[in-house]
């Protein structure tokens, strides 16, 4: 008995090797795998692939092709269904895990927000203390300036003014007119 690789069948039918693999899966065609994991077929299965190719060339859809009196395609591998109770129990377990994760995520988010608020609060406290220090320094500087100004005023000689003294000169009349004198 001769075993043929996917490539050998695709060459004989003049189709792409992936087409042969797709037909194998869709129609559940028996095959073996070699040591490299490649599909290998028996010589007699070429007729099955040729039949599929002929039906497709006639315009039939893959789901409408029947073998040996079948009206529907054969399922490649039927996976047994899980009992409803087992499915519901597993689903309930998953939902509980999802709820736990959501709660942990919410707690983590709250912790992060609390940490950020504490950090902002400490930064604000630092800024307030810095502002208080600056206020004290400004008050000290203001006090020193007041003292310097007072000392400067005390040191300057006073000019004596004579309030009754009237300016003399040709412009005296004009000055009186405008009330400058």
TrEMBL record:
<dbReference type="GO" id="GO:0003690">
    <property type="term" value="F:double-stranded DNA binding"/>
</dbReference>
<keyword id="KW-0963">Cytoplasm</keyword>
<dbReference type="GO" id="GO:0005737">
    <property type="term" value="C:cytoplasm"/>
</dbReference>
<dbReference type="GO" id="GO:0007059">
    <property type="term" value="P:chromosome segregation"/>
</dbReference>
<dbReference type="GO" id="GO:0030435">
    <property type="term" value="P:sporulation resulting in formation of a cellular spore"/>
</dbReference>
<dbReference type="InterPro" id="IPR023522">
    <property type="entry name" value="Chrosome_anchoring_RacA"/>
</dbReference>
<dbReference type="GO" id="GO:0030261">
    <property type="term" value="P:chromosome condensation"/>
</dbReference>
<keyword id="KW-0159">Chromosome partition</keyword>
<keyword id="KW-0132">Cell division</keyword>
<keyword id="KW-0131">Cell cycle</keyword>
<keyword id="KW-0238">DNA-binding</keyword>
<dbReference type="GO" id="GO:0006355">
    <property type="term" value="P:regulation of DNA-templated transcription"/>
</dbReference>
<protein>
    <recommendedName>
        <fullName>Chromosome-anchoring protein RacA</fullName>
    </recommendedName>
</protein>
<feature type="coiled-coil region">
    <location>
        <begin position="84"/>
        <end position="151"/>
    </location>
</feature>
<dbReference type="InterPro" id="IPR000551">
    <property type="entry name" value="MerR-type_HTH_dom"/>
</dbReference>
<feature type="DNA-binding region" description="H-T-H motif">
    <location>
        <begin position="6"/>
        <end position="26"/>
    </location>
</feature>
<dbReference type="InterPro" id="IPR009061">
    <property type="entry name" value="DNA-bd_dom_put_sf"/>
</dbReference>
<keyword id="KW-0749">Sporulation</keyword>
<dbReference type="GO" id="GO:0008356">
    <property type="term" value="P:asymmetric cell division"/>
</dbReference>
<dbReference type="Pfam" id="PF13411">
    <property type="entry name" value="MerR_1"/>
</dbReference>
<comment type="similarity">
    <text>Belongs to the RacA family.</text>
</comment>
<feature type="domain" description="HTH merR-type">
    <location>
        <begin position="6"/>
        <end position="65"/>
    </location>
</feature>
<keyword id="KW-0175">Coiled coil</keyword>
<comment type="function">
    <text>Required for the formation of axial filaments and for anchoring the origin regions at the cell poles in sporulating cells, thus ensuring proper chromosome segregation in the prespore. Binds in a dispersed manner throughout the chromosome but preferentially to sites clustered in the origin portion of the chromosome, causing condensation of the chromosome and its remodeling into an elongated, anchored structure.</text>
</comment>
